[in-house]
Amino acid sequence: MVTLSPGILLIADPFLKDPNFARTVILLCEHQEKGSFGFVINKLFDQHLDALIPDVLMNNIPVYFGGPVQIDTIHFIHQLPDLITGGAEVIPGVYWGGRFETVVELINKGMLDLKKIKFFIGYSGWTGGQLEDELKEKSWITSASSPSLIFEPKEEQIWQQSLKNLGSNFAMMANFPIDPSLN
Question: Which of 62, 45, 153, 50 is nearest to 108 (CA)?
Answer without folding.
Answer: 50
